[in-house]
Amino acid sequence: MVTVYESTYNWESYLHYGKRQFTRRKEIIYSQGSTGEGFYYLHKGLVRIITETAAGKERTLNIVLPNQLLGVQVLDQKTHFTTAIAVKDSVLFHFSCLEFKNLITLHPEIFKLFSRTVIHKMRILLDDINLNALTSEQKIALLLHTVCDEFKSYEIPLYQQDIANCTGLTRITVYKVLKQWQDNGIIKIQDRKHFILKPDFLRNLVK
């Protein structure tokens, strides 16, 4: 199954072509139905990508981690079909359509990298049905395991409400799962921080 998390791409040497912006926790970066003017690179923080169904329900499609892109589907300058919300205070770089054209001219290799990102996002949407089949434990395990890998640390920089927002679960459900894991020695909760004690448990849970 294709994971909801994107592969990490190295954009560091191209960031000076973008416009740096700071986004606070819970702030909307772009909204579903708004006109897109370019894409974003997430330098620091965490972003949740959601969509609103025809029934008016919110649905989480993707969690964007540092060194990843978001909003790439609107380079044709049509409207966004998703909403991006900062889960934590975040630093992003915005690349306008014109800036991206100039970037491709100067660095043709970027087009291949960008194309892979777009294809991957389409595969994420196709795998949404599989994602919905995961249990609450599996959804939380997938998030925590992926964040561990990305931040190269067993300390999870997320509060319970952040985990609930990212997984689409209620805070009560998240609390119950984490409490059970803490009682079983899988994680440790200290000063509202979460530390993974048995990463292999999470890895095996989402295989």
TrEMBL record:
<feature type="domain" description="Cyclic nucleotide-binding">
    <location>
        <begin position="20"/>
        <end position="121"/>
    </location>
</feature>
<dbReference type="InterPro" id="IPR000595">
    <property type="entry name" value="cNMP-bd_dom"/>
</dbReference>
<feature type="domain" description="HTH crp-type">
    <location>
        <begin position="134"/>
        <end position="200"/>
    </location>
</feature>
<dbReference type="InterPro" id="IPR036388">
    <property type="entry name" value="WH-like_DNA-bd_sf"/>
</dbReference>
<keyword id="KW-0804">Transcription</keyword>
<keyword id="KW-0805">Transcription regulation</keyword>
<keyword id="KW-0238">DNA-binding</keyword>
<dbReference type="InterPro" id="IPR018490">
    <property type="entry name" value="cNMP-bd_dom_sf"/>
</dbReference>
<keyword id="KW-0010">Activator</keyword>
<dbReference type="InterPro" id="IPR012318">
    <property type="entry name" value="HTH_CRP"/>
</dbReference>
<protein>
    <submittedName>
        <fullName>Crp/Fnr family transcriptional regulator</fullName>
    </submittedName>
</protein>
<dbReference type="Pfam" id="PF00027">
    <property type="entry name" value="cNMP_binding"/>
</dbReference>
<dbReference type="InterPro" id="IPR014710">
    <property type="entry name" value="RmlC-like_jellyroll"/>
</dbReference>
<dbReference type="Pfam" id="PF13545">
    <property type="entry name" value="HTH_Crp_2"/>
</dbReference>
<dbReference type="InterPro" id="IPR036390">
    <property type="entry name" value="WH_DNA-bd_sf"/>
</dbReference>
